[in-house]
């Protein structure tokens, strides 16, 4: 990610990602940002936790992020890891477009769909799968391996679906406006 | 749940017109002095029933044929498909009918904390036996002594295990085996009533067994009733009196259970059934239950939430069962009055697309509110008696420009009315153009009718504050009431709720299938009541006599303007 | 074995540390304080994990995993002991006096000053343990502070998994033990 222009706190990449200089990005060679994604200060992104076997192999993506995502301050993105057939390995984490991750949230999901809002301080357990159009309320703890279906509002510890979101969820969860703010 | 966020805006669905007001289109002409009786005509957000007709814009649909918003209460839903929220497999409706509305694969949630359970191998190198383990609270099926030979078809295995466990525990019970009192003998009326009033304790008898036995008995009972009923000619006095006799009696041997007591007819037939009831009673021996609860201790008992989600409402933790995931549905929605489809989702489970999606946001003007001066106003701490200025922005989703008329009662409904004044109640909002125009011409935005910053702080009367391509902002002044400190107030009284009638008039192309070529334009209009929950009134403030009558402040700032604007406001609401 | 570290001029800020040669410690982990920090065999210390021995000595057992952004702080001069197989997840703060073998402190959980945590406990995300509290063996603190006894019998299996995880981590995180030993 060669910096194109230097403008204050954020480094802007060719595809319009704005990455705070104060963020902690590890293993950036294993991270793909789709573009127009904002990474705020103190964010930790563990791209170094790549899949075991064939180390350093090209295309060993640990974290793939779509477009128009927003990672607020102090949030943590970490690929989930597990022991399978006696060997421990990390597995890639995929985030769709328009994913908002609130301040201080910790995400270890295997997959997060499009138009997903993860509230501040929420914890998404290992290998959770969050489908499209989901709102996770602040401080929710989603247990590992949980699957959240589309159009769900999730709250509680552990997080459970508390409500269905209306048909307009996609519009209210899209983040194009937010990108322009930064 | 979450604390309410201010400001928030709700829109009243007119499906229950009698809530707070008459049909919004025939509303009062506003600017006369409002006397208390007249206030009834404005939408009253504090009316107890209005809660049921207020919705955020996102939750509303729009019926083109009725030209009206549709709330979740005035749509008809039809199930498009069933799916398991955990494995996201679609379940055919035939399966739902035969197997019930729960996932029959391996999807279970924890009976303790309701997180998803996962099938986990307990043996070395991923070999059996397998258990259902909660990755949150570490509850496992081993807590209730169940493990599985293979990691697939857990539902079937679980059913077998539970049956086996029940059989063994039932054998050890001294109470008569439920089989002996089940299907062969029908239920007595008292038995039926008694069990409904006080279900036999599941802790005494394994729950599934009671359920199954109960079901068998009910089935036999109704079969017998059916057979007898069909034997008589239907409606005959004999069958009627017999049926009546089942559920009421004036015999000497009365026995009541609780308040709504059911009584038993003493007949030769019922005597045997009476005995059966006795057996039911022995099963739900309270001593036994108490003893068990004593042994388990407080930590061994279930919480209310844990109990109610289980079908057999267990008292003790070791009677909990893994909860098979409840299915979810995708539903299409129709207008309740004209039956047109408003929402039709794609049937694929993972898809978020809709084939038809008529949401209110793409038909009616959207209003939003913000503070004029960010430093002066705290939404959670509105100062009573002082004028707060807000910016009310109306956004037009249509491809035609609209004329907006806003109307509000000068004093909000309620015991402690806030004073509200819209500086410019009548204005135009430009049309939404497509995305390309927006992308190509940011200069198109430079079309403000009023320069920004002009008339700062107070705003100019009858002029808009700011406008963009498809939005216009006007200034709204609110004076929150001074709340008495010596009176016990409901939480609702602390919140400033402003009802605003939003009426839009526009010209649109006439859309008719029968006319060839769309000729001419027709005038359309739509209006709705919205409620602005602006914020909370500050708790305490030095008793200020001026503040008691907020109108005085109002008049100092805008009395002349009120006169000026009275003309247009008057006209607009007729 | 590991030589006793001396406070040389170059590493004046660094606390004395006894680190097992089999340890995995990231270059960007932070060891601060003045008291001795002792870390056992096969323990993994992630990047940006903070271990602070200002108030007292810190002893960490074998096969522990300390994730990124965790804080291990000695509460007082008696110090802190993490027994073997203790896993501390992201954002967790541990100021306990002792954490028993096989206990798991999940994301964002806080163990108060001087608390004593038994063996095989589990603290689900965002839960807290009060200062000075004693938590019995096999306790699970979940949800909004509910407690129960773990009867799943999965503790042995969990330990195996921790061992495997450390092996897996060694494959992806480069260790720089020397940096902290000087």
Automatic annotation (TrEMBL), chain A:
<keyword id="KW-0206">Cytoskeleton</keyword>
<keyword id="KW-0963">Cytoplasm</keyword>
<dbReference type="GO" id="GO:0005869">
    <property type="term" value="C:dynactin complex"/>
</dbReference>
<protein>
    <recommendedName>
        <fullName>Dynactin subunit 5</fullName>
    </recommendedName>
</protein>
<dbReference type="InterPro" id="IPR047125">
    <property type="entry name" value="DCTN5"/>
</dbReference>
<comment type="similarity">
    <text>Belongs to the dynactin subunits 5/6 family. Dynactin subunit 5 subfamily.</text>
</comment>
<dbReference type="InterPro" id="IPR011004">
    <property type="entry name" value="Trimer_LpxA-like_sf"/>
</dbReference>
<dbReference type="Pfam" id="PF21711">
    <property type="entry name" value="DCTN5"/>
</dbReference>
Automatic annotation (TrEMBL), chain B:
<keyword id="KW-1017">Isopeptide bond</keyword>
<comment type="subunit">
    <text>Subunit of dynactin, a multiprotein complex part of a tripartite complex with dynein and a adapter, such as BICDL1, BICD2 or HOOK3. The dynactin complex is built around ACTR1A/ACTB filament and consists of an actin-related filament composed of a shoulder domain, a pointed end and a barbed end. Its length is defined by its flexible shoulder domain. The soulder is composed of 2 DCTN1 subunits, 4 DCTN2 and 2 DCTN3. The 4 DCNT2 (via N-terminus) bind the ACTR1A filament and act as molecular rulers to determine the length. The pointed end is important for binding dynein-dynactin cargo adapters.</text>
</comment>
<feature type="compositionally biased region" description="Low complexity">
    <location>
        <begin position="555"/>
        <end position="565"/>
    </location>
</feature>
<dbReference type="InterPro" id="IPR008603">
    <property type="entry name" value="DCTN4"/>
</dbReference>
<dbReference type="Pfam" id="PF05502">
    <property type="entry name" value="Dynactin_p62"/>
</dbReference>
<dbReference type="GO" id="GO:0001725">
    <property type="term" value="C:stress fiber"/>
</dbReference>
<keyword id="KW-0597">Phosphoprotein</keyword>
<keyword id="KW-0007">Acetylation</keyword>
<protein>
    <recommendedName>
        <fullName>Dynactin subunit 4</fullName>
    </recommendedName>
</protein>
<feature type="region of interest" description="Disordered">
    <location>
        <begin position="20"/>
        <end position="47"/>
    </location>
</feature>
<feature type="region of interest" description="Disordered">
    <location>
        <begin position="191"/>
        <end position="210"/>
    </location>
</feature>
<keyword id="KW-0175">Coiled coil</keyword>
<keyword id="KW-0832">Ubl conjugation</keyword>
<keyword id="KW-0206">Cytoskeleton</keyword>
<feature type="region of interest" description="Disordered">
    <location>
        <begin position="540"/>
        <end position="574"/>
    </location>
</feature>
Automatic annotation (TrEMBL), chain C:
<dbReference type="InterPro" id="IPR027777">
    <property type="entry name" value="DCTN6"/>
</dbReference>
<comment type="similarity">
    <text>Belongs to the dynactin subunits 5/6 family. Dynactin subunit 6 subfamily.</text>
</comment>
<dbReference type="InterPro" id="IPR011004">
    <property type="entry name" value="Trimer_LpxA-like_sf"/>
</dbReference>
<comment type="function">
    <text>Part of the dynactin complex that activates the molecular motor dynein for ultra-processive transport along microtubules.</text>
</comment>
<dbReference type="GO" id="GO:0070840">
    <property type="term" value="F:dynein complex binding"/>
</dbReference>
<protein>
    <recommendedName>
        <fullName>Dynactin subunit 6</fullName>
    </recommendedName>
</protein>
<keyword id="KW-0963">Cytoplasm</keyword>
<dbReference type="GO" id="GO:0007052">
    <property type="term" value="P:mitotic spindle organization"/>
</dbReference>
<keyword id="KW-0206">Cytoskeleton</keyword>
<dbReference type="GO" id="GO:0005869">
    <property type="term" value="C:dynactin complex"/>
</dbReference>
């Amino acid at each position: 990610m060669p910096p194109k222009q230097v403008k204050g706190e954020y480094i802007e990449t060719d595809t319009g990602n704005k990455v705070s200089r104060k963020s902690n990005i590890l293993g950036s060679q294993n991270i793909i940002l789709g573009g127009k994604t904002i990474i705020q200060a103190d964010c930790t992104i563990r791209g170094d936790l790549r899949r075991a076997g064939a180390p350093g192999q090209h295309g060993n993506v640990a974290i793939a992020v779509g477009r128009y995502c927003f990672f607020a301050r102090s949030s943590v993105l970490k690929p989930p890891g597990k022991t399978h057939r006696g060997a421990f390995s990390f597995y890639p984490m995929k985030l769709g477009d328009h994913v908002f991750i609130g301040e201080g949230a910790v995400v270890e999901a295997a997959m997060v769909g499009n138009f997903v809002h993860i509230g501040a301080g929420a914890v998404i357990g290992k290998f959770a799968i969050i489908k499209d159009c989901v709102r996770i309320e602040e401080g929710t703890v989603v247990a590992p391996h949980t699957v959240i279906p589309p159009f769900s509002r999730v709250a509680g510890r552990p997080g459970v679906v508390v409500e269905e979101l209306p048909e307009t969820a996609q519009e209210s969860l899209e983040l194009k406006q937010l990108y322009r703010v930064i | 749940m979450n604390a309410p966020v201010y400001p928030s805006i709700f829109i009243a669905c007119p499906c229950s017109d009698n809530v707070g007001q008459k049909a919004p289109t025939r509303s009062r002409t506003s600017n006369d002095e409002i006397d208390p009786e007249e206030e009834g005509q404005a939408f009253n957000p504090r009316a107890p029933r209005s809660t049921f007709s207020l919705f955020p814009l996102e939750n509303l649909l729009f019926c083109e044929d009725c030209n009206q918003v549709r709330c979740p209460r005035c749509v008809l839903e039809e199930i498009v498909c069933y799916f398991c929220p955990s494995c996201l497999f679609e379940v055919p409706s035939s399966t739902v009918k035969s197997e019930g509305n729960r996932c029959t694969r391996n999807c279970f949630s924890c009976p303790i904390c309701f997180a998803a359970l996962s099938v986990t191998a307990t043996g070395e190198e991923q070999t059996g036996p397998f258990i259902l383990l909660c990755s949150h609270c570490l509850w496992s099926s081993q807590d209730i002594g169940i493990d599985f030979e293979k990691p697939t078809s857990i539902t079937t295995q679980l059913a077998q295990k539970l049956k086996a466990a029940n059989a063994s525990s039932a054998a050890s019970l001294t109470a008569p085996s439920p089989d002996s009192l089940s299907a062969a003998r029908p239920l007595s009326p008292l038995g039926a009533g008694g069990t409904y009033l006080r279900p036999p304790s599941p802790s005494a008898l394994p729950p599934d067994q009671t359920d199954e036995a109960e079901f068998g008995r009910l089935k036999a009972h109704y079969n017998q009733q059916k057979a007898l009923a069909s034997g008589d000619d239907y409606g005959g006095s004999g069958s009627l009196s017999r049926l009546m006799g089942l559920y009421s009696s004036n015999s000497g041997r009365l026995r009541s259970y609780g308040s709504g007591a059911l009584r038993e007819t003493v007949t030769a037939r019922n005597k045997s059934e009476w005995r059966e009831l006795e057996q039911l009673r022995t099963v739900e021996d309270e001593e036994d239950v108490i003893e068990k609860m004593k042994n388990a201790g407080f930590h061994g008992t279930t919480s209310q939430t844990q109990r109610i989600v289980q079908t057999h409402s267990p008292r003790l933790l070791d009677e909990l069962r893994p909860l098979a995931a409840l299915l979810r549905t995708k539903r299409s929605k129709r207008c309740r009055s004209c039956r047109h489809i408003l929402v039709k989702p794609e049937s694929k489970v993972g898809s978020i697309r809709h084939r038809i999606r008529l949401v209110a946001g793409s038909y009616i003007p959207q209003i939003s509110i913000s503070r004029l001066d960010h430093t002066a106003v705290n939404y959670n701490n509105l100062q009573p008696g002082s004028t707060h200025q807000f910016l009310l922005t109306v956004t037009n989703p249509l491809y035609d420009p609209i004329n907006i008329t806003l109307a509000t009662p000068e004093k909000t409904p309620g015991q402690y009315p806030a004073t509200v004044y819209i500086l410019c109640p009548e204005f135009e909002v430009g049309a939404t153009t497509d995305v390309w125009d927006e992308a190509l011409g940011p200069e198109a935005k430079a079309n403000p009718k009023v320069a920004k910053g002009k008339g700062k702080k107070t705003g100019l009367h009858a002029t808009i504050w700011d406008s963009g391509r498809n939005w216009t902002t006007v200034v709204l002044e609110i004076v929150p009431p001074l709340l008495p400190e010596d009176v016990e107030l409901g939480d609702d009284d602390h919140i400033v709720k402003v009802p605003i009638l939003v009426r839009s008039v526009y010209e649109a192309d006439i859309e008719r299938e029968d006319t060839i070529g769309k000729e001419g334009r027709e005038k359309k209009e739509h209006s709705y009541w919205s409620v602005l929950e602006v914020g909370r009134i500050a708790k305490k403030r030095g008793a200020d006599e001026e503040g008691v009558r907020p109108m005085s402040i109002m008049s100092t700032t805008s009395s002349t303007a009120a006169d000026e604007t009275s003309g247009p406001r008057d006209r607009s609401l007729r | 074995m590991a030589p006793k570290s001396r406070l040389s001029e170059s590493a004046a800020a660094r606390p004395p540390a006894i680190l097992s040669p089999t340890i995995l410690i990231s270059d960007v982990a932070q060891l601060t304080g003045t008291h001795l920090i002792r870390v056992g065999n096969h323990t993994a210390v992630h990047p940006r994990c903070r271990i602070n021995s200002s108030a007292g000595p810190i002893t960490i057992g074998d096969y522990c995993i300390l994730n990124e952004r965790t804080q291990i702080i000695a509460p007082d001069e008696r110090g802190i002991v993490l027994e073997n197989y203790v896993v501390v997840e992201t954002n967790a703060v541990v100021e306990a006096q002792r954490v028993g073998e096989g206990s798991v402190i999940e994301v964002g959980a806080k163990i108060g000053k001087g608390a004593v945590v038994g063996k095989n406990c589990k603290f689900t995300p965002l839960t807290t343990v009060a200062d000075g509290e004693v938590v019995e063996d096999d306790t699970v603190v979940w949800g909004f502070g509910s407690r129960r006894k773990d009867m799943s019998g999965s503790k042995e299996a969990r330990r195996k998994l921790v061992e495997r995880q450390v092996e897996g981590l060694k494959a992806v995180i480069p260790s720089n033990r020397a940096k902290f030993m000087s």
